[in-house]
Amino acid sequence: MDRIDATLIPEPGLVVPDITAPDEATAHAVMAQLEQLWATSGITPVRREPGVPGVHARVHADIRRPGAQPCHHSPGRHEGGAP
Q: pTM to 2 decimals?
């Protein structure tokens, strides 16, 4: 993944989280949750690096702007109710 430089975060409130997950489904779920919280770049492409476990994605977000709808996900709980 390319390095994050000042042009990607030119002002307070802008963030660029890098996501590492065991699989694409998990990475997509994380991006969907971020999209509910803040204005984001949406579900971005997921990449695999040869020899590196898991998948990687990058999202651009503006934490000053609310997302699509309120997030009702409880920390530490996964979809389906299992901890």
A: 0.71
Both tokens assigned to 61: 């977000």
Find the distance separating the first CA and the last CA of the chain, reported in whole Å: 31
- Residue 32 is given by DSSP the state H
Looking at residue 80, its pLDDT comes to 42
Condensed to tens digits (0 to 9), the pLDDT of residues 23-53 reads 999 999 999 999 999 999 999 999 999 999 9
Query: Is 60 in contact with 41 (CB distance < 8 Å)?
Result: yes
Local structure of 28: helix, strand or coil: helix
Element (H, E) at 29: helix 24-37
Tokens found for residue 17: 């989280």
Name which of 46, 38, 37 is nearest 18 in CA terms.
Answer: 46
Q: What span, in angstroms and rounded, lies between the C-alpha atoms of 41 and 43?
A: 7
pLDDT at 75: 43
